[in-house]
UniProtKB/TrEMBL annotation:
It comes from Domibacillus iocasae. This is Metal ABC transporter permease. The chain crosses the membrane at residues 14-34, 39-58, 98-121, 141-159, 228-248, 254-271. Belongs to the ABC-3 integral membrane protein family. It holds the Pfam family ABC-3.
Length: 276
């Protein structure tokens, strides 16, 4: 396996991208779970699918777009979707949870239309749905590195603000924290992470990587920082184990990564129960 990684560029791209995603997805996931916004990852993943489908359709019909990576269309749609969710949350102030199913439904609907226009499913779209070890390009890897750098820098400098905003939004506003700006930056970063994670985990399973490691970490952690560190650890184990399994068994990595995450979660729950 190690020899194959050094030999084939696509394996280098997949494992490096996976290792990075295994850090940034659970990292943001810890804040998402605490803020009870877990379903927002599902909504944005479906919006991103619309962007991917739109990119594939435009690449088929307009020669000028043929060389453009559909991932960038997905990122644009995901960021746009995150902004629309926030707008809808302001419109439905007393029923803010409505924003998520509205955006999820819209994302699915637009995605289905573009998939139909692009003559149905093809190999490229299938790899975005469930992830693919061989489909990760060097451009995808560079996108993952760029987004991860922005995420790590933002979390490092805004950790205090994100922490307070996650646990007590009213106190954050009263203490002078620019809550709206911080939340908007966080939601945009979440959208970008979801978009760049698709090649590895797949659009239908990316939300699991942001929540399952956090769910496992919350069972054993004794504080929020420890929850973050354990979430990243469980995320890394899930991604690496899932990618190795997918390589040897010739399976979609999204499924193997998520199943590994579930096994870790079950193991933690059983261990905690036995310990108590």
């Amino acid at each position: 396996m190690i020899e194959a990684i050094f030999t084939y560029e696509f394996l280098q791209n997949a494992f490096l991208s996976g290792a990075i995603i295994g850090v940034i997805a659970p990292l943001l996931g810890a804040f998402i779970v605490v803020r009870r916004l877990s379903l927002i990852a599902d909504a944005l993943s479906h919006v991103t699918l619309s962007g991917i489908a739109a990119g594939l359709f435009l690449g088929q019909t307009i020669p000028a777009f043929a060389a453009v990576n559909p991932l960038y269309f997905g990122m644009a749609f995901s960021v746009g979707g995150s902004l629309l969710i926030e707008r809808l949350r302001n419109v439905y102030k007393h029923y803010q949870e409505l924003a998520i199913p509205i955006m999820m439904s819209g994302g699915i609907g637009i995605g289905v239309i573009f998939i139909s226009l692009a003559d149905g499913f093809n190999t490229d779209l299938f790899s975005y749905l469930f992830g693919s070890v061989s489909a990760v390009s060097r451009g995808d890897l560079y996108a993952v590195i760029g987004i991860s750098a922005i995420v790590l820098i933002t979390v490092y400098f805004l950790y205090k603000e994100l922490f307070i905003l996650s646990f007590d939004e009213e106190y954050a506003k009263a203490s002078g924290i620019p809550a709206k700006a911080v939340h908007m930056a966080f939601i945009i970063l979440t959208a970008l992470v979801i978009a760049v994670s698709m090649r590895i985990v797949g659009v239908l399973l990316v939300s699991a990587l942001m929540t399952l490691p956090v769910a496992a970490a919350m069972r054993v952690a004794k504080g929020f920082k420890q929850t973050i560190w354990l979430s990243v650890l469980f995320g890394e184990i899930s991604v690496i184990t899932g990618l190795i399994s997918a390589f040897y068994l010739d399976l979609a990595p999204g499924g193997t990564i998520v199943v590994t995450s579930i096994l870790i979660l079950l193991g933690v729950i059983i261990w905690k129960k036995e310990k108590n």
